[in-house]
Each structure stands twice: as C-alpha cells, then as structure tokens.
Amino acid sequence: MRFIVNDTPLDLDPAHLIIAGWTGRDAAAIQHHIDELAELGVKPPSTTPLFYRVSAGLLTTGDSIQVVGNASSGEVEPMILQSGGQRWLGLGSDHTDRALEAHSVAMSKQVCAKPCAADLWPWKDVADRLEDIRLESWIEEDGEWVVYQQGTLASIRPLGELIDGGSLDALSRDGAVAMMCGTFGAIGGVRPATRFRMTMTDPARGRSISHEYSMVQLPEIA
Asked: What is the tens place of the pLDDT at every residue in 113-131?
C-alpha cells in the first residue's frame, strides 16, 4: 500500500490488522455504545477493551468498497501504523456488517473492507497532544451530508495502552501492523448509508486528514 507522510510517499505491506473495540475511556460512553448495538441484537463484550484480528488485506485507501446487502456502516477511528521501529497516526473506518454483528462481532468485522486515508502523521509530531486530536464523520442521507460522529481522542483510552494491549511492538517485528483504535457513539443511532466521510484534525497545527468512500451493495443471495 502507498501512504503519504509529509508529502513523501511511503510504501508499506501490512502483515497484521487489529480492530480494537470497546475502547471508550468513559464507562457511560462505553455503555451507550453497547446499548445502541444491543438494539441491533449485538451481545455485550466479554471484557473491555477487546482486540479483534482480521485479514490485513482488508485495509484499503480506495474510495469505494463492495458490501453484501444494505446492513453495513462505517465508524471513524484513529489508526496506528507501525513498521520497522517507526510509528504513524492515521485515519480509518472500521466498516462493519451490522446484520452479521448480531451473530458474531469478530466475523462481522472480517467480512468488510477497512477504508483508510492515505495520509499519515509521524507519531513524534503528535505524541505530545494526542488527546486534542479531533475526529468527525458524516453520512449521506437523502442527498445531504449529516453529522454522524464527533469527538476527540480524550474520549478513547490512551493510545499507548492500546498499543501495548494489541501487542504492536511484537507484531511489527515481522512486518507492518495497523490497528484501528475505537470510535464514538453515532449521533441518531447506528445506521447504514451509501457514502461515508471522515476527518481527523490537529488543532495545534491547523491541519487535517480526510477520506471519503462509497458502498456498492452486492445482492444478498440465499
């Protein structure tokens, strides 16, 4: 995969992809996300946080993904990439099949591509102010963009804890590893859409990373 760091191309071949779930720092916020997913029939997690392993080949910087049926949706998340002793912060979407999620959260994450922005920030450039980093997402409904999620990394467990919990240092010894680090509750509830837009902003530097993608729905054949 080709990423961009400070306008310079960076080619990485991720060998591992981790989806960190239930990573909210506020117990009430975690419960809110559990409750909104429970409305879709999703069982509560056995513990928090959890680290789901999925195929590294699911990660994509493309602007379109294919999904089966109309029951999938995106989630804006900070993304950590690590390789060869170097680490970067990026932006991704843990796109998930909500119908399958009611049967198995792990399987629901495996069946969907994981879109991410091509742009990355060097970890050392943001490590001292991670909690100020802001994430937002929008979905297209009835031809208009609607705010779907908003929050800062202060709402998510410290990323250093998630790096340790996901064993990124150990995994990166045999190839690049990427980890999605959790999300915020959906404004108006979790729901599908055909287009998803997301942005990560660093207020101190006045810069942002954005990505937008569409969902092509494939027929669900029984």
From this structure: 999 999 999 999 999 999 9
Give the position of tokens 């929050």. Answer: 151
With CA atoms as reference, report the closest residue to 115 among 61, 187, 155. 61
Residue count of the chain, please give it. 222
pLDDT of residue 89: 98
**Sequential DSSP letters for the chain:** -EEEETTEEEE--EEEEEEEES-BSSHHHHHHHHHHHHTTTPPPPSSSSEEEEE-GGGEE--SEEEEESS-EE--EEEEEEEETTEEEEEEEE--EEHHHHTT-HHHHHHTS-EEB-SEEEEHHHHGGGGGG-EEEEEEEETTEEEEEEEEEGGGB--HHHHHHHTTHHHHGGGSEEEEE------TT-----SEEEEEEEETTTTEEEEEEEEEEEEP---
- What is d(CA 91, CA 78) in angstroms, rounded to the nearest whole number? 5
The pLDDT tens digits for 155-173 are 999 999 999 999 999 999 9
CA distance 194 to 218: 12
Region for 181 from its dihedrals, namely left if φ exceeds 0, alpha if ψ lies in -120 to 50, beta otherwise? alpha
Q: What is the tens place of the pLDDT at every residue in 52-109?
A: 999 999 999 999 999 999 999 999 999 999 998 899 999 999 999 988 988 898 999 9
Q: Is 132 left (phi over 0), alpha (psi -120 to 50) or beta?
A: alpha
